[in-house]
Structures are given as C-alpha cells and as structure tokens.
Amino acid sequence: MSLKRFQARSHKDAMRQVREALGADAIIVMSRNNDAGNEIFAVREEELDSLAAPSTVTSQPDDLTRQLLHDVQEMRLLLQQQVATSEPLDQRKWCYLKLRSAGYSDTLARELVALLPAHLNAAKATQEELQAWLTEQLQMRLKGAQRDWELLHHEGVVALVGPTGVGKTTTTAKLAAHYVMQMGAESLLLVTTDSFRIGAQQQLATYAELLNVDIFALHDDADLAELQGKMQNKRLVLVDTVGMSQRDHRLTQRVAALATPELGAQPRLALLLNTAAQQATLNEVASIYHGIAKQLNMPLNDCILTKVDEASCVGGALDTAIRHHLSVQAVSSGQQVPEDILAPDFQALVSSSMAVSDAAKDAYEDTDIDLPESLSARSQTAIQHAHMLRDCVEGLAAALPDFAAVQQQLLNVSRVDTAVATLPATTAFARWATAKPAANFHHSTPHFGFSQAGQLELQPLLQQHAAPWYEQTHLRGHLFDFLPTGEELDALNEQSLAWLARVNRQHRFYHQGKKASAADILRRHGIKLDSYSRTYRAEVHRLSISLAAVARAEGSEEYLQLACVKLQPSSSKKRAVERYFLVYPGCTAEQLYDFIGMMLSTDELDRLTRSAWPLVEQHVDNADASSLLYLSALLASSAASLAHSAAPTAATLRAQLMALTQRTGKADAHKLLPAVWQCVLAYDAFHLGARAHEAPA
C-alpha cells in the first residue's frame, strides 16, 4: 500500500495535489496544519484492503502510518455495519414530495403514497420506476374518453361555465369549429349570455359568421320564442355563459338562468379550469360550482382545461378533476381557433405534470411529514378494484333509469315477475319484437318500451305473457320489428295511432300504379331529407333518409310512407348499413327521426339476449326458462341502453367498464354486456365479503 503525503501553503492547494496524483476518489487519511501550511495524508481507495507498510513515505515513521491505516479500516468497517443494520429506505417520502411539488394536493398525495407497493418502497427502486408507478396511478384516476371529442357527440345543450377570464368564449369558438369540421354547420347553434364583458357577444358573433353557424344572444329581454325556433333541428347547442368570480353572490342566479325551458330541462354543464391557477383556487372553484349545480339539480360532470400554455405545472388542475370526479373533455392552450384545443391525452397530461424540476421538489424537502403506513399488496389491489367497481355501479345508476332495481333483479331471481302482461303506464312507445327467435336460439326476443323522451326502458315484456298491442291503449305509438297484417295496419290508422314497421328491402309495394321492391322504389323515386351524424354501434355514422309514397294494394288510395335509412360510417373502408321502414301516413320528419333512433338503438337486442343467456344461466340457480329469458333480456337492454346513451357520464362509464374487463377497441353493446354483468357480480361479492367481515363471531 502507498500512503502519500502532500504539503502545500493552503488546504485548497494540497487537495489539488491529491486529485492530480491519486484521482478524485482518493481517501483522505489525515489533514493538519503545520508551520509550512497544510499537510494531507491520502491513499487510493482500492489500496485500503491491504495493510502493507508504506514504501514512499519518507518523513513519517512506520508506526504512525500503520496506526493511521488501522484507524481508517476501523472507520470503514463501522460504516458498513451501520449501513447493514439501518432501517430500509422509505421511498414514500420521495413520492409524496414529487406529487406535492407537481401541484397535487396533500389529500391525493397521501392516498397514493399509502398504495405504494412493497417492492417499490425499497432502496433498490429507482426514481424512474417510482415516477412510472405514480404516472400510472394518476392516469387511472382521470375520467374521460381519451383522444375523442365525446362532448361534441352530445345531443342537446352544453353550457360552458367558469370564472371570469378562464377562456369560455374562445373555447366555445374552438369547439364550434371542430364540430363544423366533423358534423357540419347546419346542426349547430351558438348561444351567448355574456352581456357583461364589452365585445364578448361581438367576438362570438364574428366566429359564428366565419363558421356559417347560427347564433342567438340570450339576455333578459330576449325573445325566447325566437330561441326555440332557432333550436329546431339543431343537434348541439353550445352556450357561452357570463364570467363571474366564484365568490360573487349573483353566480347562483346566473347559473339558474340556464335552466330555462327553452334551452331544455337539464343543460349539460362543462366547468372550465384555468390550469395556470393555484390548486387551492381551482379546488374552491370546483367546490362552489358543484354546490350550485347540486342545489339547482343540474349535472356537473365535465371540465375543460384551459390556458395550459401559461401554466408552469398542470398538476393542480388534474388534481381538481380527480378529486371532484370531473370528466376531462378537452385541453385548450393558446388563442388560435381551432388549432389550440385538443381531445384529452391523459398520458401526456400526467407526464407533463410530473416533469417538475428538482428545485421545486427541494422546497418541500425539510418538511416534517407523517405519512400513512403502506398497505399490503392484496389490500392495495382490493381497494383499487373496489373503487373502480363503486364508480362503475354509481355510473350505471346515473346513466340508466331504474338500474338499482335492475341490479337487484339480476342478483335475486325471486324479484323477477315474468307474468306481467302489459307495459308500464309511463311507457309512451312500444317496440314489438318478431315472434321468430334469433339464429341458434330457441326463445323469442321480449318486447320493450320507450319513455316519452325516447329512452329505452330496461324491463322486458315476455311474448308468451304479453297482451296484444291493441289492448295496450295507453301507448302513443307502436314500433314493429316486422310488418303487421293488413287488418292490423288498418286498425292502427283508424285509431290515428303513430306506427312504424320494419320491412325487407325486397318487399314489394305499389308506386304510381307499378309494383316494385322497396329498394327499387326508393332508388328511383326517393326524396332525400336532411342528413345528420349519429352514433351507431359505437361509431359515428352519417345518417340519411329517403322517402316515397306507396300503397299496399293496386289501385288503393290509402298511401303510406316508405323510408330507407342509410348509415354511412366515418371510415370509408366499411360498408354502409341500410334499413327499410313503412310509416303511417301522417308521420312528420321530426317524429320519423325519433322513431328511427329508437329502432336503431334496439336492433341488436335479439343477439344481445342470446349472448346474455349463457352468462346468466351459469350464475343463476333454480331459475326456469322464463326467468332466464327475462334476466337475459334485462342484461341485454342495459348494455344496449348504455352503448347508445348520450348522458354526460356515459362515455366515461363505457371506458371504465372496458378497462375493468381488459377489453379494447370500440365500446359497443356486445363488449359492454359481459362487462356490466361482471361488474354487478363483483360489486355484490365485495359487499358480501364486507358484511361477513363485519359480522360478529
């Protein structure tokens, strides 16, 4: 071993000599001042394992050298023992500090830290692994349809709300521009209520003129009849609301004004969150608007992140969306229309929020933190699954009417009454299924009802017990999945009842005295109505309708309306879908659109019922064929209704169910059906386990 001595006028110069001679990893054995300046004894680190006498030390006796080396070895052994016996490194503090410096709240940070897996709460875990786990956890907690303009597919009124200066007018224009590019301008209406800010209405009016979109200024003296007229045949109405401080006492009154009947019973609210604002401010804004929405019985489930380009960190906005269960519908940055708005990308958003500098994290480094104990891996998984199941079941109850009753029936066959003969008194329209069973199925699909608003009612009506349609006099209209007899059609017309019947494209009718197939008549003589966009089987289609007057018999003067519905998918590689219907003579175009929408939302019920049968049969004991058919149809109607639902929470719920069952692709009814069933069973199993755990021994 070579212990070297270095002498210099100052300690700095002596250290420079050490680095030059032995390298930056040299071990300083001793340093002391003397008459000549500063003296340092040093040795290379790799030579400490040998206790050989130094050969190059000229001014010190061997016993001093040996003593120094012996002391160094003792210190080294002591340090190794301390490291071996010290407590394992707790990575929870690093995770907590990372989340807090990224803008996330103390509440959410502690919740995630408690879920940190044991294999990551160890010294060997790298910061990259910890950050990847945190990113994944945050992504799971964000709600919304990623990379999809779900908000633009909504049919009805969407009102953008939020404090002053959050960017409501510009965001309205950006959304309008994207809607026009996807759906066209004729089915969109812009409404502005901002009469406070100078130039606000003129700004939106300029965008409306550029986009060739109708606009209406809704103020205290506005003609609401004119508003109703402008809303006719509009698929989407975007409302730019007045901006106010969340603490302004007039805010509740302004939000309540959106509940005017002319705008619809329940406009969909989307809260704009200024990403550049502090997390505490965003939390206050969301809490106040949630309270107002609850007080006014108006749903607030969506948010749009704005001013992302001005934010040093987006964590506070994401934290607000997670804690207040808001679905992120869009991300806006900059003033350019329509370029500076995007559909949400959760991975990009979370990764951006976690890319904070070490200096930001160091600001929390000296904080005394009392962190919760980590849970076991099994407990962590159970809690995560329980939260997901709870969110899904609550979402089903919010999106589907009477799902609580449906859930009880699916879990308890004794609650099922298969002998019901008539549809409920609240039912406005009935969808009468054909008596012929679906392929490879030995049971006829049950009948179903629709509410006055055209919402599919989940409870089925078994064909073997159902009273004939003409005995159910409370119904306002009848939708047949088959063509009734001539006598039945005559009876319907004599009673002035609304009806629509599905026919085959080869079915032959008389047009202008000549008999031809339905397809040929409409191809040659069909009059086209306005087309519009509609979601069909989890994909946006362009729906167009052609009409022609036909008679059932030669020389008959009683004309009916023959309609061809063509659904053109957005992907040019897929073939268009065609459906043919016969409609009663007095049917208006608006009513025809409604009837066709009801039929399209239920045209898979026969196959869905067939698919549900083995799932139900496997888990339901002591059930006869009628009960199994009823439960299968109940599950089928739930999946079909969810697949076509335009409720504010439906898109998020569909994504959650797909993730829960690890399914990919479009969230169509056939994928949602087993997901709904597994969700109901698993949620019930968690409750049974919890009750068993709480029960006294």
Automatic annotation (TrEMBL):
<dbReference type="InterPro" id="IPR027417">
    <property type="entry name" value="P-loop_NTPase"/>
</dbReference>
<keyword id="KW-0813">Transport</keyword>
<dbReference type="GO" id="GO:0005047">
    <property type="term" value="F:signal recognition particle binding"/>
</dbReference>
<keyword id="KW-0547">Nucleotide-binding</keyword>
<feature type="domain" description="SRP54-type proteins GTP-binding">
    <location>
        <begin position="155"/>
        <end position="355"/>
    </location>
</feature>
<dbReference type="GO" id="GO:0005886">
    <property type="term" value="C:plasma membrane"/>
</dbReference>
<dbReference type="InterPro" id="IPR003593">
    <property type="entry name" value="AAA+_ATPase"/>
</dbReference>
<comment type="similarity">
    <text>Belongs to the GTP-binding SRP family.</text>
</comment>
<dbReference type="GO" id="GO:0044781">
    <property type="term" value="P:bacterial-type flagellum organization"/>
</dbReference>
<dbReference type="GO" id="GO:0005525">
    <property type="term" value="F:GTP binding"/>
</dbReference>
<dbReference type="InterPro" id="IPR047040">
    <property type="entry name" value="FlhF__GTPase_dom"/>
</dbReference>
<protein>
    <recommendedName>
        <fullName>Flagellar biosynthesis protein FlhF</fullName>
    </recommendedName>
</protein>
<dbReference type="GO" id="GO:0015031">
    <property type="term" value="P:protein transport"/>
</dbReference>
<dbReference type="GO" id="GO:0006614">
    <property type="term" value="P:SRP-dependent cotranslational protein targeting to membrane"/>
</dbReference>
<dbReference type="InterPro" id="IPR000897">
    <property type="entry name" value="SRP54_GTPase_dom"/>
</dbReference>
<dbReference type="GO" id="GO:0003924">
    <property type="term" value="F:GTPase activity"/>
</dbReference>
<dbReference type="InterPro" id="IPR020006">
    <property type="entry name" value="FlhF"/>
</dbReference>
<keyword id="KW-1005">Bacterial flagellum biogenesis</keyword>
<keyword id="KW-1006">Bacterial flagellum protein export</keyword>
<comment type="function">
    <text>Necessary for flagellar biosynthesis. May be involved in translocation of the flagellum.</text>
</comment>
<feature type="domain" description="AAA+ ATPase">
    <location>
        <begin position="154"/>
        <end position="302"/>
    </location>
</feature>
<keyword id="KW-0282">Flagellum</keyword>
<dbReference type="Pfam" id="PF00448">
    <property type="entry name" value="SRP54"/>
</dbReference>
<keyword id="KW-0966">Cell projection</keyword>
<keyword id="KW-0653">Protein transport</keyword>
<keyword id="KW-0472">Membrane</keyword>
<keyword id="KW-0342">GTP-binding</keyword>
<keyword id="KW-0969">Cilium</keyword>
<keyword id="KW-1003">Cell membrane</keyword>
